Amino acid sequence: MRRSRRRRRYSRRREENLEEWVPKTRLGKMIQEGRISSIEEIFMEGLRIREPQIVDALLPGIQEEVININLVQKQTDAGRRSRFKAIVAVGNREGYIGLGSGKARQVRAAIEKAAVDARLNIVPVRRGCGSWECGCGRQHSVQFQVEGKCGGVQVVILPGPRGLGLVAGEVARVILGLVGIKDCWTRSYGSTRTVPSFAYAVFDALKRTYSLITPADWVR
Fold it and tell me: Which of 94, 18, 9, 30 lies closest to 55 in space, CA to CA?
């Protein structure tokens, strides 16, 4: 119940931001003029997203999940300075995922900064059915084994058959669910208790799904 209210509040806030949005970049003006109507065109042209409203306009069903919130301290000449660091993941459960971090003196401001950073870092993820036990051809898992690394953490994502579910930790399940992956195995090595490094390792593995060209991508 609380999560549904939070999502409704976020959706209303996104609608208000889109109504008040005045594009500052060339890409934003092209989207507002209707010259670009899908986020696929942005990645096909190799353009860079510099405004978070672009993602809200092209992916209206995007969702947010707070991955982690920590209290960080910094010693300065004026004394000890404390701030909150938040990590937020965004995704539409249809093949797009973003992960970002933000720091602020208040938790809410840190979450909002992290959500903006996650939208600017959104990437497409290749999904499919890469398990030899299934072969259904649906986009419920990954097409092949992928590996990601961040700091001292390494994560391996392996394709799984339908009905398996997400054999992963809590943080990985949240990120994989936001991207739309329903069945897979995961292996992790290193300091997996470090939540930021573990989350970014999963994100790095998902980004690598487009690092390999499959026969379906061959130009005939």
Answer: 18
